[in-house]
Design goal:
The chain has 436 residues and is an alpha/beta fold. The chain folds into two domains: 22-241, 3-Layer(aba) Sandwich (Rossmann fold); 243-432, no CATH class. It has helices at residues 22-31, 57-70, 89-98, 103-106, 132-135, 160-167, 170-178, 181-199, 227-241, 269-272, 281-286, 319-323, 327-337, 352-361, 389-396, 420-423, 428-432, and strands at residues 7-12, 44-49, 74-79, 110-111, 116-121, 127-131, 139-145, 202-210, 216-223, 249-255, 291-297, 316-318, 347-349, 373-376, 384-387, 401-408. The protein has an eight-stranded mixed β-sheet. A six-stranded mixed β-sheet has the order 4-3-2-7-8-9, sandwiched between helices. The protein has a two-stranded antiparallel sheet with strand order 5-6. Strand 8 (202-210) and strand 9 form a beta hairpin. The longest helix is centred in the middle third of the chain and has 19 residues, at 181-199.
Length: 436
């Protein structure tokens, strides 16, 4: 049996743009925007909020609500997450509440009904669906993180336009677009958006771009008339800023948790270099870096509510992660999205130690002294990672990487569980369990 290499911490230190005062900048973005002139006193404004993990989410949503009130509007929140949360009102309410997007923290109604209305036919001669509560409002805006999508490449990926069509389309809208696979997302989604901008009270949205450290980097309100011109450059900026694994090739990548709060795909293909899209080998080639032989996942985040979408991107997992899957939301999300390869269940092992050991044993590199191993908490928080000695040599030659502390052994307890909180004390997992 191969010996596990020692680990040493590496920190990515390239300068990053950051918004210093997020609530103040959110307020300024709304009040000074072209969109603000569309809002008149007394208007009922629906604010679309989705299921993605966004840094400063509550602060941004609260500042948005307050800015709309300052403009004289009567804001309320509508769930804009397609079929997530098991495609049920309660499931979507629970997802939003897990980010503190609820009546208690925002002081406005939060509506999660799944009713959608057919608002017309797009250029593909197909029906387009939209949230009934949003359609009844005087105006609709969204709070949307702009970032590279996990399933396809196009001028519009994750962002305002996607939330407009799929998020506010509820289950019907998500099903309609995803039924066409990659073509539906890249080609039909913008066509449906054109119809929605003409037939609904949609006004525009707040675009959020985050940096490598998952901090708020850009806040910009985009008016609906400018959406097709202004969102694509924001996507380019997001792609340049997003967190990446700073090595071109790994034998083994160990991921502490997969989860919908970290990526729509559970494990972000833009980070791990695996798209796993059926009948799309060209897309597989597009995600060429990093090239990773073996990926192991140790857990599913509780924020996923049992939806372990994307767990099949991993090769080996723990039995614990498989046991944390709730079949209902897991099947609903995957059957609606129609990207099924990603969620085939990998081989499971009883302990973290066994899973990690088997990743090393099967990584096609039997030279212990040359193993290229990295450990990250999830695919959202990759500014800090732990790596094997071979990668430390490369890291020391990279001016954007800082090698921190001394080498150490893997922190397993007596039961074979990896102490992830010890490795990543500032991660989502560690903040969830402050006693650790």
């Amino acid at each position: 049996m191969m010996k596990l290499p020692t680990l040493q911490r590496v920190r990515q230190i390239a300068p990053q743009p950051t918004v210093a005062d997020v609530p103040a900048e959110t307020r300024r973005a709304w009040l000074t925007s072209k969109l603000a002139k569309r809002i008149k006193p007394g208007m009922r404004i629906a604010v679309g909020c989705g299921s993605r993990g966004i840094k400063n989410y509550l602060a941004i949503a609260k500042a948005t609500i307050d800015a709309l009130k300052e403009l004289g509007a009567q804001p309320f929140v509508v769930a804009a997450m397609g079929s997530h949360g098991g495609a049920t009102p309660q499931g979507q309410r629970e997802l939003l509440a897990s980010y503190f997007i609820d009546e208690e923290h925002l002081g406005v109604p939060v509506l999660t009904d799944m009713d959608a209305v057919n608002v017309g036919t797009n250029s593909w001669n197909l029906p387009v669906w939209w949230d009934k509560n949003a359609l009844a409002a005087d105006g609709v805006v969204t709070v949307s993180r702009v970032k590279p999508h996990t399933d396809f490449r196009g001028r519009f990926e994750s962002g305002i336009l996607k939330m407009l069509t799929i998020g506010l389309g509820k289950r019907h809208g998500a099903d309609q677009v995803h039924s066409w696979g990659v073509r539906g997302l890249a080609e039909m989604m913008p066509e449906s958006a054109k119809l929605l901008m003409a037939k609904t009270p949609f006004l525009g949205g707040l675009a959020i771009v985050e940096n490598t450290n998952e901090e708020t980097a850009i806040l910009k309100v985009v008016d609906k008339d400018d959406l097709f011109e202004e969102e694509p450059p924001l996507l380019v900026q997001a792609r340049e800023l997003m967190g990446k694994i700073p090595f071109d090739k790994l034998d083994v990548l160990i991921v502490g948790e997969c989860g919908k709060n970290y990526s729509g795909a559970g494990l972000d293909p833009n980070v791990v270099g695996r798209l796993l899209i059926e009948a799309s080998p060209e897309m597989e080639l597009a995600a060429s870096k990093p090239r990773i032989t073996r990926i192991g996942v140790l857990d599913v985040s509780p924020e996923s509510h049992g939806n372990a979408t994307g767990i099949g991107i991993a090769d080996l997992v723990t039995n614990r992660s498989l046991a944390n899957i709730d079949p209902k939301p897991f099947r609903m999300n995957n059957l609606t999205a129609r990207f099924l390869w990603r969620s085939k269940l990998p081989i499971g092992f009883e302990t973290d130690r066994e899973c990690i050991q088997q990743c090393v044993e099967t990584c096609w590199n039997p030279e212990e002294e040359n193993l290229r191993v990295a450990v990250i908490p999830n695919t959202l928080e990759v500014a800090d990672l732990w790596v094997s000695p071979t990668l430390i040599t490369e890291a020391k030659a990279n001016p954007h990487l800082d090698v921190v502390g001394d080498p150490r052994d893997w922190p397993f307890d007596a039961s074979g569980a990896l102490n992830q909180e010890a490795l990543f004390p500032h991660s989502v997992r560690a903040r969830r369990t402050p006693h650790a």
